[in-house]
Amino acid sequence: MPLDDGRLLILTHHNPDPDCLASSAALKYLLLKKRGIEATAAYTGVIGRAENRAMVRLLDLPVQHAQDIDFRNFRYIALIDAQPRTGNTAVPEDREVDIVMDHHPLREQTRSVPFYVVAADLGATATLLTEYLRLSAITIPVDLATALVYAIRSETHDLGREASEVDVKACEYLVSLADAAKLSAISRPVLERSYYVQLARALEGLLLGNRTAVCRMRQVNDPDFVPEMADLVARMEGIDWVLAWGTHGSRLYLSIRTNESDAGSGEVMQQILEGLGSGGGHGMRAGGAIELQSDDGTQFEALLMERFLRVTGESAADLLPFGAAATS
Question: With b meaning 16 or more CB within 10 Å and e meaning fewer, what string describes 213-249?
């Protein structure tokens, strides 16, 4: 498609994760080197998780907040690691998306996009962008390679979750180009004391069943903490399904994690949020959100739990507070 006669905005989904951040930087670099196009990469929400902030800072990733830009200055919009009209991007209602690059299951709305590449068989969008850079014979700078390899590792849990052979090969290629010291620093950043306070509060709201966990959080410091807790609880012995939620601003954020391969957690999230909000995902992980009229999301808790337990087949009577479950 002819992009040279207009400005291009590369947009991530709300509260971008490493896959979003690295992939948007990679597309910006690819367009510059291949087509001479100066694109702008932007995100909405917050970059909350300490690892993600360290990634942007140490690798000097060329992304800026969307509040600092005017959408009217851009003729084209590209979505990275997201798809149109899913409720997790800031694309204005009166604008159409021109490019989509993603690794989640293809949405019907995406079929009308002029150019889209949706590789649902890949574990990360960063893998897709790495393949484009390699096929274009473009040298990948050290910091960009570091960002891409960290993104693939993060998205696939070090290639142990939903990673394809292409993801593994991309990671192997990128490691030889990456900065090992920066990778280590990103993986183990210094954590503020407030993080541990929030962690303690999250454990107070954790309910454990025979194979199911529900992590009920009220206000969280940043939306990234919700999937972070879901990831943490999913590592607990005997737990196969996790639903975590927490409120940030005027949104209730939800995350699902499962240790069952090909469990279709994206479809499960859509079932849970039917009539309430929007969400999606893929086999073993999913996310979603509900727009709130106030900052109180407790009104939805009973319904969310009921719908989740219906899918997992566990009874609410089987759920015990974390402290009681740990000592029983």
Answer: bbbbbeebebbbbbbbbbbbbbebeebbbbbbbbbbe
Name the pLDDT band for 172 (thresholds 50, 70, 90). Answer: very high
Q: Each residue of 135-168: pLDDT tens digit?
A: 999 999 999 999 999 999 999 989 988 899 999 9
Residue entry with tokens 């970059």: 47
CA quadruple 32, 35, 37, 39: dihedral positive or negative? negative
Q: Which domains are present in the chain?
A: 8-187 (3.90.1640.10), 193-327 (3.10.310.40)
Give the model's pLDDT for residue 266: 86
Residue reference for tokens 């930087």: 25
pTM here is: 0.88
Best CA proximity match to 221, nearest among 23, 53, 12, 90 = 53
Residue 158's φ and ψ, nearest 5 degrees, are 55, 45
Closest Cα to residue 100, out of 125, 122, 75, 124?
A: 125
Beta-bridge partner residues of 102: 118
